[in-house]
Write a structure and sequence with these properties.
Layout (H helix, E strand, L loop, with lengths): L1 E7 L3 H14 L3 E4 L11 E3 L5 E3 L7 E2 L2 H7 L5 E3 L4 E5 L2 E5 L3 H8 L6 H11 L9 H9 L1 H16 L8 H4 L17 E5 L3 H9 L4 E4 L12 E7 L3 H4 L9 E11 L9 E4 L8 E4 H5 L6 E9 L6 E2 L3 H16 L3 E3 L11 H15 L1
Parallel strand pairs: 1-2, 1-11, 2-10, 7-13, 11-17
Antiparallel strand pairs: 3-4, 5-9, 6-9, 7-8, 12-15, 12-16, 13-14, 14-15
Helix pairs in contact: 1-12, 5-6
The chain binds flavin-adenine dinucleotide and uridine-5'-diphosphate (UDP).
The site of flavin-adenine dinucleotide (FAD) has 35 residues, from helix 1 and helix 12.
């Protein structure tokens, strides 16, 4: 048997690509996944207490793309969910993204209009031009003091480097607001897959032209499988056996805890802004999933430089190494590199879906 396509990885990139190839081109696809499950980092499962958890940390779906939302709607129903986060600083919880309520609470003010908040930010902010780093983008909006309280140390914990070494795209993901909107995201579509991500992936992959092999590193089967084209969604540097050096990825360790109470926290995520706490955030999954149960499970996130590659680290230096690898990927005409790890891009799930659909349209 000769497969038309061998796809490495069963995350969003690999699964969406397989679905398109199988359903639109009627071609045979083999997906090889080294973990013991599908869904990549979006994988969810029931823990021993019967609570639906995200094995690799909180995954909240949000998008402005009608196309992406409609595409995924073929494989899942949705549950409306607008994520809310509180930041813990100096023993007090504040709404994050920074908004009018955050400012009033922190400075004991009573700013009422958006205009007043705008003026407050004006009085605090430093003009930074050009905006080259994550420090620049925040300080240019709200000033150094708020940056120091809510971004500097959290970012240092999360990335292991200072915000002034990171691309503005990192801290720029979090908006600043002058109103009292406490939602973490501003996107038009904010929904969670009703039965979870893994169930959605099962439907994406349910096609007579798609076969999936788990627990297998693709390198171990390359000699025994025949295929015409490869789509690779694993880490870019690993594909080339690190021949130009290691591309840094940030990893995480998760500590899961079940508590015999209905809810432990007052929101889906608590972010720990200070260095005195060594984890970055705690997620309470029942907020995300809407599950009703008498106990609750939370996970604490500790950032590390060792372990599974979770986040590409957007610095100038890493961009240079990325370009060297990118140059190599461009030379390989029968292998397509697709996804957060394979393209070394800090993509959200919706961006990965949009990116995969685009690669399918233009390159397959
Ligand atoms: P992955 O999901 O990483 O899939 C790649 C797959 O390839 C993996 O399953 C891997 O095991 C497999 N693989 C790698 N090497 C090999 C090999 N040699 N052989 C076989 N298989 C291999 N996005 C959002 O939109 N909202 C969120 O709230 C959100 N939260 C996140 C929280 C965390 C902690 C993390 C890490 C990411 C988060 N994301 C979020 C991003 C989201 O996880 C990614 O955008 C998406 O999962 C990327 O899909 P992918 O298929 O490109 O990569
Ligand atoms: N960030 C921060 N404080 C916060 C929330 C976010 O400093 O309370 C910074 C941090 O550097 C983080 C980045 O903003 O990595 C992007 O935040 P996001 O919540 O999007 O991170 P992700 O969910 O991708 O881990």
């Amino acid at each position: 048997m000769i497969y038309d396509f061998l796809i490495i990885g069963a995350g969003f990139s690999g699964a969406v690509m397989a679905e398109r190839i199988a359903s639109q081109l009627d071609k045979k696809v083999l997906i090889v996944e080294k973990r013991n499950h599908i869904a990549g980092n979006a994988y969810d499962e029931y823990d021993e207490y019967g609570i639906l958890i995200h094995r690799y940390g909180p995954h909240i779906f949000h998008t402005n793309s009608k196309d992406v939302f409609e595409y995924l709607s073929h494989f899942t129903e949705w549950r409306f969910y607008e994520h809310k986060v509180l930041a813990f600083h100096n023993n007090i919880y504040y709404p994050i993204p920074i908004n009018r309520l955050t400012i009033n609470k922190l400075y004991n003010l009573n700013l009422k209009s958006e205009d007043e908040v705008e003026k407050f930010f004006e009085s605090k902010k430093e003009n930074r031009f050009p905006i080259l780093t994550s420090e620049d983008i925040v300080v240019n909006q709200v000033g150094y003091e708020l940056f120091e309280k809510f971004y500097k140390n959290y970012t240092k914990k999360q990335w292991g480097i200072e915000p002034k070494e990171l691309s503005p795209l990192v801290c720029g993901r979090v908006p600043t607001r002058t109103n009292d909107d406490c939602r973490y995201f501003s996107d038009k579509y904010q929904f969670m897959p009703k039965d979870g991500y893994t169930k959605m992936f099962e439907k994406i992959l349910k096609h007579k032209n798609i076969e999936v092999i788990l627990n297998t590193d693709y390198k171990s089967i390359l000699d025994s499988v025949k295929f015409n084209k490869m789509i690779y969604t694993g880490p870019m540097d690993e594909f080339f056996d690190y021949s130009f050096g290691k591309l840094p990825y940030r990893s995480l360790l998760f500590e899961f805890e079940n508590h015999d109470t209905e809810f432990l926290q007052s929101s889906g995520n608590l972010n720990y802004s200070d260095l005195s706490v060594d984890f970055t955030r705690v997620t309470e999954y029942k907020y995300l999933t809407g599950q009703i149960a008498s106990s609750t499970t939370v996970s604490k996130e500790f950032s590390t430089s060792e372990g599974d590659p979770f986040y590409p680290i957007p610095t100038e230096e890493n961009k240079k190494l990325y370009r060297i690898y990118k140059n190599e990927t461009d030379k390989l005409k029968s292998i397509i590199f697709c996804g957060r790890l394979a393209e070394y891009q800090y993509f959200n799930m919706d961006q990965v879906v949009a990116n995969t659909l685009k690669i399918f349209r233009n390159k397959i």
